[in-house]
Design goal:
The protein is α+β, with helices and mostly antiparallel strands. It has twelve helices and four strands, in the order H-E-H-H-E-E-E-H-H-H-H-H-H-H-H-H.
């Protein structure tokens, strides 16, 4: 089952739910917990800001982005101001999506919406020394945002946004029957299913292999499936990792590599954030439930 497309919010037009205290609570949780856990895992500082509804809030968002530790020293430079305005324009579009670029000062600036159960609830801005880990960081932010909402709803059953059911959030396998997708999206899904174990497979890589523009393909994929392509790649890899943990005796390091995760520590961190337990604990629990040892290879 595929989650619905992410609703977007235009300048000066707050959503009907945007002023509800439940969403305000969720944004505070995102700002506090997501930023803290992201820094603990990656060592990187991120700025999480709410969806702005008027000019005053827009100014606060721009100031918050400017105060990022890497950006702060350049915040009054014309190029840095243009960068923040570019992120702001992206947040005003009907298809806000993760974007990054190499700024004039040699850093990689990243802007990404944070979504919970298919709904955009906040925006995230951070800067890196290189763009090598951008896709991995965006994947982690998705997982952290889902978990933040799950923890909130455990204490507040009246939260507007509820996490997706476990079978949808964790597996999210795509059903080809009667979906009405274009041939391009079908080819992208098939390519990912065939090559997800390649750690170099990214959205840009899929676009190159299909001879398409990355932004165009990303937009088409999200609009037609309701899911970002980078998240689909990540969830497909996690699905394979869980399968191998349950059916083989492979070491966690080997399972990470066979599932498309180049870095074992990164795999363990993101697996724990997604499942709430370590890969080894997941394997032990699965074997206790099945009451049979995994076959040896």
């Amino acid at each position: 089952m595929v989650s619905p497309a992410t609703p977007q919010f235009r300048r000066g037009r707050p959503s009907p739910e945007s002023s509800r205290p439940e969403l305000a609570d969720l944004r505070r949780v995102l700002a506090r917990d997501v930023a803290r856990r992201f820094k603990r895992i990656t060592g990187q500082v991120i700025v999480v800001t709410p969806i702005w509804k008027d000019r005053a809030e827009r100014k606060k968002v721009l100031r918050a982005w400017a105060d990022h530790p890497i950006c702060k020293r350049y915040q009054h430079e014309r190029a840095c101001i243009r960068c923040r305005l570019s992120h702001l324009r992206n947040s005003m579009t009907d298809d806000a999506h993760p974007v990054h670029h190499r700024c004039a000062f040699g850093h990689t600036c990243v802007f990404t919406p944070l979504s919970v159960d298919g709904q955009c609830v906040a925006y995230c801005k951070f800067a890196l020394e290189s763009d090598a880990a951008v896709d991995r960081y965006v994947e982690l932010l998705d997982v952290l945002a889902e978990n933040a909402c799950s923890h909130l709803t455990e204490h507040d059953n009246h939260c507007v946004i509820h996490p997706a059911p476990e079978h949808v959030k964790k597996d999210q396998s795509i059903d080809f029957s009667g979906d009405g997708w274009s041939e391009v999206v079908h080819r992208a899904v098939e390519l990912i299913d065939e090559q997800f174990a390649d750690p170099d497979l990214t959205v840009a890589c899929v676009a190159r292999r299909l001879c398409l523009n990355r932004d165009y393909l990303s937009h088409l994929f999200r609009v037609q499936t309701g899911q970002r392509m980078s998240r689909h790649i990540f969830l497909r890899r996690m699905q394979q990792a869980r399968k191998l943990l349950m059916t083989t005796d492979f070491q966690v390091r080997q399972i990470a590599l066979d599932s498309g995760f180049l870095n074992t520590d990164w795999f363990s961190h993101t697996f724990h954030e997604l499942e709430g337990i370590t890969p080894s604990q997941f394997r032990r629990n699965a074997r206790r439930q099945n009451d049979t040892p995994a076959p040896r290879h």
